[in-house]
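Trying the structure run again after the queue cleared.
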Amino acid sequence: MRRTIAIPAALLALAACSSDYGTNPGGGGSLEAPNNLVSVSLNGAIQLSWDANSRLARPDLFEHYNVYSTSYDLDHNLCDDQNWTLEGTSVSEDFVVSGLSNGVPLCFDVSAVTVNGRESAWAAPRYDTPRYDARNVIIDASQAHLSTSGFRFQFPNSSQLGQVVSGDRNDIDFRVDRHNDGSIWLTTIRNGTSVVLYSQDPVDDLTSIDVAPLDGYITGSIEAVPGYAYVFQTELSDGLHFGAVRVTHVGADYLILDWAYQTDYGNPELRRVR
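Done. Tokens:
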């Protein structure tokens, strides 16, 4: 039986254990354990990938990979070692676990299986949390159309996320504003919401936004620039939540953005990277 694996708080951004991993009950096979299991948080799903070392080292013995999942205790940084479930198999170094509940943390692992059914040791486990997202959301500048210039990731007691509402409300996370020079800005509004520029460089996609930054958050306005990503921290009654936006287009009176939101309070994870 595999040993219980604790993920130290200092390594949450890496989401992997540095200790030895043990083996599954049928371990000790002829294939190496897969290396570098990584994941991407998706809406209701997790995309997993890993190195091809197991297959390439012994292509004559390799048959497929087994992919597993179990629950994850975010507060204690523990994978539930007693209830690993086989999610499926793959002959390539990637796998999408779908049909998941957003905001519910899970641990994932993978092993390599030989043509005669012998299973390798397991990779270093990963934890990840599916989160809500949406693409190509249009929000107007308040100076052009006030009624569609505000945005909130999650209103209290509402199952609908990512709502575009009037920019004159005081309970929204941010409003889109146009400054006198024609530039478009994101302005935090309600108490408990702040924003930080995710990276000094543009990001390729919404899924390029990984763990929410620890500090640097401000209240007020930050310029919206196409290709750049912004992370928001928002206070709700159950605690701190994190959301992210990637601006895809800025017009004279509006912008278009992609957004992601983590409903699991206190969880800074928007996407997991190597």
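The chain has one helix and 18 strands. Worth checking whether this holds up in the mutant runs.
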